[in-house]
Fold:
Amino acid sequence: MEELKKYNIDIVGLAEREHVFHYTSGDGFFQEFEQDLIEKGRFEADLVLQKSSTMIRLDFKISGVVGQVCDRTLEPYDEHFETENRIFLKFGDRDEELTDEIEMIQRNTARINVARYVYDFIALALPVKKLHPRLRSDENGEEEEVLVYGTSADSPKGETASSEEDIDPRWAALKGIKQEK
Structure:
């Protein structure tokens, strides 16, 4: 919990204007959260907090690198990321998440901790499919096999999807029924 304390912001004493905060963290930050998504990494986060009488606007700009394991080869690699996000904290009579970007906090809230927001934004910036960077490019000369499904109606006039000799005799009988109508 010691690592996350530096993300506390006392909002009671802040003037109604723009405030800038800078955070730098490493592996210890990710180990504070009970999760298996990110175990190690390092990042820098810049936070611009704009306080007014009715709300607080938090603009995050986060960049860094986290250690990942490739889903295909199980090799460890570093995933670089960069993200910009915004959260609005509106003053109200209860704590409630209104939308993905708007949360209501009680008027008497003295301190907010932005560590959870930083972690969530980093997690959302990572690709869902963890693929080693060397497998993402065509430098290996390997091409992915693509299957295209279609019917003869999909092909241009004069071309057929398959020749008449290739049709299974059972389907040929059904084709004859269709043409009789």
